[in-house]
Design goal:
Length: 245
Amino acid sequence: MALEQLIPFFLITALGTYVQTVIGFAMGMIVLGCVTQFQLAPVTFTSVVISLLMLANGPIALKGNMKHLDRRVFIWSLAGLLPALVTGVLLLSYLSDEFARILQWLLGLTIIAGGLFIMLKPEPLPQQSRAPAFAVAGAAAGVFGGLFSIAGPPLVYQLYRQPMSLPTIRLTLLAVFLVMNTVRLLVLGIEGELTKDMLWIALISVPVVALFTMIGKRYPPPVSDKTMRRMAFGMLIIIGTSLLL
């Protein structure tokens, strides 16, 4: 990646890192979408670099904030997500391109419809969902993550609808996605998919990720909880639209 490509890549990474730290997700969508749009790097290359950068974002965002982590939700979400992630990857090998495209459209439409509905009524549920509901959301996230590399929406919906504080929602999402990306990178490493160029770009981007993670922790947007929830679901609508396009 040449210098004239690195500078916009750093700027995109800074934006994605800040948003990820503030709402708990969307770094992958922002970085992958912008990098693809501006043709800075191939999609496969960028997706692996994003996973590497999340290994830097997650621990910095979680440091000093572990008291906000909902361990029950975290464990149940992973219990559903990790096995389903493998299932999603295996399904990808068997589904025809046409059927996979139909599933992608349905996923996009579902995300948009759900995001619009909850943006109009962003108040959380009266009481927290039972533990198996988080496993189901994690399983859906795992399958979609394996099929389309977009695991966030089901878990984001599930957590942002809970009567939990926003720091708890954000930190729990960050912790789940940190574990997921760690597993994904281990699999890629075993398969020999990690290259020196990927590791190098990720390494020189770490200072940007570290800086904007700390900025996101210290200076989140000065908005109400209801507005923050609307922002999260607005971001999901953008993800759904990108899937359709």
